[in-house]
Amino acid sequence: RDRDVTGVQTCALPILLIACANVANLFLMRAAGRTREIALRVAIGATGGRIIQQMLAESFVVAGLGGVLGLGLAFAGTRAMSSLIPAAAMAGNGTNLNSAVLLFALGTTALSAITFGLAPAMQSLRAGVHSRLRESGKSIAGGIRQNRWRTMLVVAELALSVIVLAGAGLMLKSVHRLLAVDPGFRPDHLLRLNLILTPSQYPNNTAILAFWRQLLDGVRTLPGVESAALGTDVPLTNSHSRGDITVEGMLLPAPGSFPHPDEHDVSPGYLRTLGVRLLAGRDFTDADSETAPLVAFINARLSRNLFHGQNPVGKRFLNGRPDPARKPVWTTIVGVVDDTRMYGLANPSRLEIYRPLAQVSPNEMDLIVKSRIKPASLTSSIRSVLASIDRNQPISSISTMDQLVQDSVGSRRVTLILLGLFSALALVLAGIGIYGVISYSVAQRTQEIGIRMALGAGREDVIKMILLQGAWIASTGLIIGMLAAFGLTRYLEKLLFSVSPGDPLTFALVALVLALVALLACYIPARRTLRVDPMIALRHE
Predict the structure, then answer these.
(1) How many Å from the N-terminal Cα to the C-terminal Cα in the chain?
(2) Please, are residues 118 and 53 in contact by the beta-carbon 8 Å criterion?
(3) Looking at the DSSP assignment, which residues form a beta bridge with residue 298?
(4) Quick one: which H or E segment has residue 236?
(5) Range of 18-32, 161-175, 290-304, 469-483 with top mean pLDDT
(6) Buried residues in 43-60 as b, exposed as e (16+ CB within 10 A)
(7) Count helices and strands in the chain by DSSP H and E runs
(8) 438 within 8 A of 526, measured Cβ to Cβ
(9) Which residue of 187, 361, 366, 454 has the fewest CB atoms within a 10 Å radius of its CB?
(10) Which residues, other chains included, contact 477 with Cβ-Cβ below 8 Å and sequence gap of 6+?
């Protein structure tokens, strides 16, 4: 989950920078429009310190109002997230606004107020008073240098938006592919209950086996139950035990190289209940009792690893390593089952051995119940069966297999939700940024537009001119953003599943979405030029 947090932080930082770029543009445009006002204040005796003090005061008011509104939205957003994200997926990490978050918000607000209040003030004081008084505010506002700075900020916003959207797109594709993975079993309509028998109450194998048999017999007769079985290690619970094995007739491997498969103890009907496919041989039956010869089935991966395409049914193996002082106790392989994703959908299958419950007698088991109705509705009936056998026996945990599947991708879902929210915010902020710059540019070029129209330029030509200006800004931001995203999305590589950090389809869709947003943001102010009267425009300023 630390990798998930890193992935979210990688995309959260660009959002902060995009917002800062928008604020910077806002203050630059405000300061540009007040250039003559500031020059007049200086001319009648205002000191530079007084001008800076005024600018900072206004900046702190704006930043303070934004900070309060932001905290209100954050509070509402965290409450909404709590209902969207399962508590288990948060791994104990709450979504409350604690003191650290509030201090960070306060510090960010103060830093933004100082930076974006001080910079325009210094810029306004840099030029001489007389030159500024001789020019109108709007002419100065349309200066080449200031326009260049505003354009660069919007280019940076678009580039940062590409990074955020690329990360979200890669995560979306990754989660989609993860949920499409075949887990090797069917999780629907399955209820899982974990039970642990105490040694004092069940001191020997006979008592343990008697309890498990009574439990299975009682649960199988319940209305709505299709089948029931027991297993020590149910998929996606992250519980397992392992042991070395030695295959009969094979050369002994070097020390430390013995096959080390996971060992599962299951009852007859386990495969049918979970929907695990039997590829070869037979399933366990009641005849595989504690007095019968030892049998087992193995999964397909272990079969490939040990027998290299040969049929393993009928082969024998020894638990542990050979001991010359002891007569070997061989276990016969009676079946081969399909691989299962025991340790999460994103993790590959492992080497696995399944043994009959009666030949091992474990005191901790998972009861798996396949139902024809909602699995959770069987809980009270199963508790009644359990109480009729041993009223003091507790149930350690209860869950449906669908829940386990969802929990196995829970952290990725959290990351996806957060990245989705960040992406939407990045799109909105980038759209506002490019809209602001183009709209402001159109306002400053009103006289130029009037001259062009008076000389015969059509309204379509004017719209094309404005759109080309926006297209240049958007294409520059997209190119820079793509190059940056190709490098930065490498940090998400460990979070991705079957998706390359440089997935071309994802990057193409990101570019298309941002291009459409930029086009819309440019078209709105460009269309406004259709309402410009050439005569009024010629008298502008």
Answers:
(1) 59
(2) no
(3) 336, 353
(4) none
(5) 290-304
(6) eeeeeeeebbeebbebbb
(7) 17, 11
(8) yes
(9) 454
(10) 154, 155, 156, 157, 158, 159, 161, 162, 514, 518
Pairing of strands 330-337, 316-319: antiparallel
- Tell me the backbone φ, ψ of residue 356, rounded to 5 degrees: -65, 135
171 vs 495: CA distance, rounded Å: 8
Residue 183 CA: distances (Å) to CA of 108, 121, 312, 519: 45, 62, 23, 44
Model confidence over 212-248: pLDDT tens digits? 999 999 999 999 999 999 998 888 776 667 777 888 8
**CA-to-CA distance for 108 and 138, rounded, in angstroms?**
32
In contact, 150 and 28? CB cutoff 8 Å: yes
The CA–CA distances, whole Å, from 280 to 266, 276, 310, 329, 403 equal 18, 12, 12, 24, 30
- Residue reference for tokens 């259709």: 530
Tens of pLDDT along 355-381?
A: 999 998 888 999 999 998 899 899 999
* Residue type for position 266: V
445: its two tokens: 């070029």
Pairing between strand 295-299 and 352-356? Answer: antiparallel
Cα–Cα distance measured from residue 471 to residue 479, given in angstroms and rounded to the nearest whole number:
12
Which are the contacts of 430, defined by CB distance < 8 A and separation ≥ 6?
A: 18, 157, 158, 160, 161, 514, 517, 518
Q: State the residue for tokens 């061989």.
A: 330
- Which tokens in the block code for residue 139? 């002419």
